[in-house]
Amino acid sequence: MPAALTTDGQPAGTKNRRALAIAGDDVAAKATVTRLIDQFGFDTVDAGPLKEGWRYQRDTPGYGPRRTSEELRRDLAAAKRYANK
Predict the structure, then answer these.
(1) Checking CA distances to 49, which of 18, 20, 78, 79 falls within 20 to 30 Å?
(2) Which contacts (CB < 8 Å, 24+ apart) does range 42-46 have?
(3) CB 70 within 8 A of CB 43
(4) 44 near 37, Cβ under 8 Å?
(5) Residues with Cβ < 8 Å from 79, sequence gap 6 or more?
(6) Residue-by-residue pLDDT tens, the chain, 85 positions
């Protein structure tokens, strides 16, 4: 996956642009990270506060494969905590 992050970037507005999830409690920090991710060529999907970061951990639908913003939002919403599986 790291190699894909160095080659998959696309200009803003590109159809099917790859999205990356973030979570955090600091609104200003998330805005800064969102701008940086956009400069790298990716859309950002805000998963909410840091306590929601589990939604894209290993073995959840939002982890791993390439996703568009729409797909990633859907997969984050479908995530189930390990204890709830």
Answers:
(1) 18
(2) 42/5, 42/8, 42/9, 42/10, 42/17, 42/18, 43/12, 43/17, 43/18, 43/19, 43/68, 43/69, 44/19, 44/20, 45/19, 45/20, 45/21, 45/69, 45/72, 45/73, 45/76, 46/21, 46/22
(3) no
(4) yes
(5) 54, 55, 56, 60, 61, 62
(6) 556 777 889 999 999 999 999 999 999 999 999 999 999 999 999 999 999 999 999 888 888 888 999 999 999 999 998 765 5
